[in-house]
Amino acid sequence: MKIAVFPGSFDPFTKGHESIVRRALPLFDQIIIAIGINAEKKYMFPLEKRENWIRATFADLPNVRVENYTGLTVNYCRSVKANYILRGLRNTVDLEFEKGIAQLNKTLATEIETVFMMPTLELSAINSTIIRDIVRNGGDASAFVPSAIDLKN
Amino acid sequence: MKIAVFPGSFDPFTKGHESIVRRALPLFDQIIIAIGINAEKKYMFPLEKRENWIRATFADLPNVRVENYTGLTVNYCRSVKANYILRGLRNTVDLEFEKGIAQLNKTLATEIETVFMMPTLELSAINSTIIRDIVRNGGDASAFVPSAIDLKN
Amino acid sequence: MKIAVFPGSFDPFTKGHESIVRRALPLFDQIIIAIGINAEKKYMFPLEKRENWIRATFADLPNVRVENYTGLTVNYCRSVKANYILRGLRNTVDLEFEKGIAQLNKTLATEIETVFMMPTLELSAINSTIIRDIVRNGGDASAFVPSAIDLKN
Amino acid sequence: MKIAVFPGSFDPFTKGHESIVRRALPLFDQIIIAIGINAEKKYMFPLEKRENWIRATFADLPNVRVENYTGLTVNYCRSVKANYILRGLRNTVDLEFEKGIAQLNKTLATEIETVFMMPTLELSAINSTIIRDIVRNGGDASAFVPSAIDLKN
Amino acid sequence: MKIAVFPGSFDPFTKGHESIVRRALPLFDQIIIAIGINAEKKYMFPLEKRENWIRATFADLPNVRVENYTGLTVNYCRSVKANYILRGLRNTVDLEFEKGIAQLNKTLATEIETVFMMPTLELSAINSTIIRDIVRNGGDASAFVPSAIDLKN
Amino acid sequence: MKIAVFPGSFDPFTKGHESIVRRALPLFDQIIIAIGINAEKKYMFPLEKRENWIRATFADLPNVRVENYTGLTVNYCRSVKANYILRGLRNTVDLEFEKGIAQLNKTLATEIETVFMMPTLELSAINSTIIRDIVRNGGDASAFVPSAIDLKN
């Protein structure tokens, strides 16, 4: 059974995230969208909301699960018997960060492979930081999140 | 009338910023240097000081205005009838950040174009973060800010 | 009079190039699309064809001119009394190249400024190299060039 | 049936390539290593040699096939009913190149996804260009190619 | 006498840092590993611990000293009569940051040169941020720090 | 005895190259500027001219030697008993290239270290490619090469 973990803080989950999951899904038997909880980070949206939003987004897909975890990502992967980590890759700053993480994860857990996909063109400028910035400034970011997500609620 | 907004926190305004504004000015009828206020950010220099410093720098140029704003940059641009955003571009990390912002702004407001200029060689290592670091450590950063700015006052 | 030169080999001119010119045009009184001729380079499309394609693309815009030149770009700019060079900027590899050229041009001709614009999202993957590759392999690249350009003719 | 095409010129095939194929193989039912033939490029090693070397490298793996092709990669993928393109990603220069290709391929063939993997740490400095340079200069590059490949023969 | 300062926060010191110091040491008469103290930053490991760990790591090398400093790095260099700053360089994000710092330091103190070394392949994914992340999440990071460092003590 | 090789094609040698050599010289007992000869590359300036220009540039410095070599750079280093390779590093494209070479050289010859220096601000836009382009187009590139070099002769 091929299980992939798609880890992130998803604060909030974007159309870019959704697209990666839908496009990668045929490659795996199951994708677990795993919200990492970092006690030192502040989030704009509460965990429960973020989980519910993602669940609503994939309500039609039984092989997409939503969970949260603390601790190392590779340990979490092992606990759910996932052999793959799925990551989106937008630009060169992402690359340097992801490369370091992927290569270190490989050292910590040689049986786990990281697989990358790039956003489609029309989604490539969307990221959670910019969405939070729009929300904070009273703008309308609904065009950048899946339709099941109502950022104002 | 061609109005450009040059947005930033300008904490403090540098010789690099000054050079971009002076070199871009012939392209526009007016450049508004717009200090963005983000309630979640801490600044080293108070807003009033930053505004006065920039005003003193361009005292000779009636078509350079200094203002401050909250909220989305594109909304501010609309409120002052600006069709252009002017940005400096120093390096590849800047590029990835600016590209995301520019492409998203284009989605939020198709009538607004972002125009980029690069620093001249001798100014290309100057940025506000490094100046704050010099000031914090008791160094002399006067060579990196316009002559009208006295960082110690 | 504000004249900008938009230099390139345009082998062929793409929708990305067209978009930059149309979006930048309000900033200038005239944009000269200047096809640089480098005797050591081989081109896929003959100069005359490239010129005619660009002329057809901007037939509706009298303040867009199409010319060709040899020699240094800054010398050409001076010969046509242009104070601006307009360049598109797609990615970090572009940036490093363009930064070197722009800073050196500034040394060779201090009165000439280079102004950059980024492609809109949907055009940001298009470039002449990829189009030539599609053409060479018998693919259909018509979606990536202006409608006035018929690559097969 | 999940089929991936791993396209390249493989001049020569490296340990880095081998590692990507072996690590990606569990994700697919079949990986086709497809040597692209570009009439305008010169290769150091003849096509037949390159094909045989790759075949010898994967002699133990029946679900790895080696083929060659001309024309557009997406057209080749369709002809062999592959829905995935597999690519290695080493660094930021690679990224900008691969991103352009992947996003354009998505435009040409929406049903084909590109999946990226990064080299493991110890293989991340190996590439075919450097190997050809070592060979050309009379050096010993055998440490950088799969053991089934004898560059001197 | 050729003295180099190797500045950083070393929170904690890594095998990557150790490798740079050992490989650069033959170039200098003395390397001073200088822990910069920034009152606005929070550190995971107390200063005394960080100093002792580095001292233990280089107990065998009398020409490696460990110190701490506040204020500008170039001022510290002058105070210890160092004409060189030694820095590791891992990736393109590092480069943009280090280039700005190095070029500005050159402006502040023309007699001080910055010399860069790159990590060896097998150490190139290690950095202090990732180690802190592993520690914070209860993982075992001992493989990434010099053997004289016991992160749990 | 600390000997560094500064390898390149130096077609032509620039003020940027000169600056790196002069700034690095105090670190070494001898720097050998080594012109690599690649039979497959075409050069604008003949080897003899390039050698003479560099010799004239460092006529005042007995511990700078100029030589040429064929074959692998690490083999050449061994033949002249050099333990260091000196390289300039301008930008992120350089970095990716240099990193690959440096890490592979380390694999081929563990006793040889590569040391990098960055250009000073005012020289950071100069490179041989741009100088050749200026020369080819009849421009005056004398400001970018050491005063001992007369490109027209």
What keyword list fits this structure?
homohexamer, 153 residues, alpha/beta, Rossmann fold, 5-stranded parallel beta sheet, 5 helices, globular
Task: Characterise the protein shown here.
- 6 copies of one chain form a homohexamer.
- With 153 residues, the first copy, chain A, is of the alpha/beta class.
- Chain A contains 5 helices and 5 strands.
- The first copy, chain A, has helices spanning 15-24, 47-57, 73-79, 92-108, 128-136, and strands at 3-8, 30-36, 64-69, 84-88, 113-117.
- Chain A has a 5-stranded parallel β-sheet with strand order 3-2-1-4-5, with helices on both faces.
- The radius of gyration of chain A is 15 Å and the shape is globular.
- Chain A starts with a strand and ends in a 17-residue tail after the last helix.
- The relative contact order of chain A is 0.22.
- The mean pLDDT of chain A is 95.
- The A-D interface holds A 2, 23-24, 26-27, 83-84, 89, 91-92, 95-96, 98-99, 102-103, 106-107, 113-118, 120-121, 124 and D 2, 23-24, 26-27, 83-84, 89, 91-92, 95-96, 98-99, 102-103, 106-107, 113-118, 120-121, 124.
